[in-house]
Automatic annotation (TrEMBL):
GO terms for molecular function: ATP binding; hydrolase activity; metal ion binding; nuclease activity; nucleic acid binding; RNA helicase activity. It comes from Chondromyces crocatus. GO terms for biological process: defense response to virus. In the N-terminal section; belongs to the CRISPR-associated nuclease Cas3-HD family. Belongs to the DEAD box helicase family. It holds the Pfam family Cas3-like_C_2. This is CRISPR-associated protein Cas3. One of its GO terms (cellular component) is cytosol.
Amino acid sequence: MSQLGEPIELLAKSPRGPRRLSLERHLVETEAAAVRLFDLSRRWGQAFCRFFRISEAHRERFLLNLRLAALFHDLGKANQDFMVAVTTRGAPAQALRHEHLSALILHLPEVRTWIARGPLVDVEVLTAAVLSHHLQAARSGDHTWGAPRGGREAVRLHLDHPQVKAILHHIAEVAGVGEPPTLGQRSWGLGDETWIAALREGKRAATALDRALRIDSERRSLLLAVKAGVIVADSVASGLHREDHPLEAWIDDVAHAPALTAEDVHTHILAPREKHLAKPGERFTYHRFQDRAAEQGPRALLLAACGAGKTLAAWRWAQEQAKSRPIGRVVFLYPTRGTATEGFRDYVSWAPEDMATLLHGSARYELEMMQENPSEGAKDKQFEHAEDRLFALGVWPRRYFSATVDQFLGFMEHSYQSLCLLPVLADAAVVIDEVHSFDRHMFDVLVSFLRHFDVPVLCMTATLPPSRRNELVQAGLRVYPSEEARVELADLEARERHPRYRIEAVAGAGEDVACAEAIAAYRRGDRVLWVVNQVGRCQRLARALEEALGEPVHCYHSRFTLKDRRERHNKTVAAFQQKERRALAVTTQVCEMSLDLDADVLITELSPVTALVQRFGRAHRRLDRSPEFRARLLWYPPERPEPYSRQDLTASTAFLASLGTENISQHQLAVALEEHALAERDADGSARFLQSGYYAVPGAFRDTDGGAATCILDRDLAQVKALHQKRDRLDPYLISIRRKFTLPDEQRPSWLPRHLGVAPSARYTEEFGFPTDEGAERS
């Protein structure tokens, strides 16, 4: 401290040994990161502006306001509480969040009058980006702007410090607004009229901005781009300083690497995949459907039956996008971790290991396990997870992504990691698979994303209710193949119209008769897949079948630890990918998406129409039996409709009745789905990122299950503690169970991360998972 009580140095972060980061340096480096990343003469800057639909005329305005936001964003750290927090272990909560203070400074009359002189400055956009950059600013409730914390109502300020004065002069040069004002405020206090007036003016401006954005789409685009851009620039400046990477060189290597070419996509992904798929002694050839899918332009919806080759068609589409516009990445997005892992294993892993990545919550564990049993594409490669200490920035150098949809579209609900991935998303061709499976909120977000952001997107699925298809068309997607296009797609038509199934309603006692049918078919040597709607029934039926047969039955659902679930997944898939040996599995909805199962007999409980079509797609999938072979599809109504509605099941009964029983093709399923799938409400356009204006608080990307808890089995606590002490990931030991089954808090060790509970292992087995009652639980 100086003799006047002012700190000699203002810090932006806690010191790391001898390395100290001053506030001034951090603000200047954040601005430099923004300028380097979003250079308007280079691909990333152009792609980012195009993504947010910022017109050529307004791109200089975007970059200027982003630079100013970068320089202002942490100015509120110039206070006594923050200096104590970064230099003292166990410091008390700061009276006011620093970004809340930064935004209040921007609402001081002398500051606002001064900065508004800049002809390209949008003060409300600037203030919104500053206030919201930590995603902890709200109009009311938790994180209310200007609300004190920790019972403290005042804090000393250091706004006359030389570092602050230097930053204000730098801001004046960037904005072209002349000499900055002198900030004489010595403290912030809850009852101080200066700050009361600033907050009052700020909230009035926030409300006015909300009204203005409803009719000014250009300004909304500017706001969203600046809010996202300052988060990205701050993350880059902070991460690169922390890891001691040179800022400009790292950005140039990563952000400004050459664009992907169509030849790159062919060499890295398609050529090795073609070689793998080709029959011995023959050259691989694409179906006409796959050739034509590549020509559908930057916004398309690919609808084709299970097993038609959609994923390979999507890679051809991505290759074509690299010809039509500069892109640096190809991003495949899936609804679940399992489907993302399969997408990586089957396609992305063919790329060189430094270009490919798997991105979801347990990706590191999946990559480690993949080395033990690599796919053809992954052989002799060492895929490493992203550089953890750089967090989302660690995957920026990669070119080919297989990820869960949350990882990239979560920005729509203010996911910080997803926001940090936005420059990658804006620089990519994007494929979104299994869109039929998105819950209502996910689908709302998808439609909003398509409406508001400009990036090449191909959505695909085997089946889609008319209401959802129409929404995607209205959002700008072109359906392929259309009825007109099918005229020249003889190979696809033949595949989709080939009779595959016999559909039989299980007579009499339903489940009991189905059990007898399963046993008889298994004893005949068939591969039998039984799909039920609830975990409890899956477990009970698997046990009953094991007892009746005297040999193991595959039981696959979501209530396993990750390491056991992976084992169950692999064994179940392997059992149905071969056709020399009989197999029997009881599963839940987890089998419906992208799992390469090929059953001879499929038994299912009645479920919604779209789910039934997906389940049926797990039978006679490859058409590799004799032309006369028909898979048996047996269905019966469950005792209770949950987790679905009676209306869902009534529609499904009508759907099945309309099909008849003999020689059913996938084309017939699709036509009947059009008629019988229940209509849904239209997407409401909701997404926090689009609607929050001045504010930002994270929300849920998916319809959440409030009754579930992520836990550790009590028998695994010793191993988990050792991993936790080494700061290693706990993924293999995580299990999701109903919250009511968790152990009481007094049996929970204090070292366990707060978001994890403890589950009683006495109830758990590796074969059947964690038992649950047969209530409304699914999956």
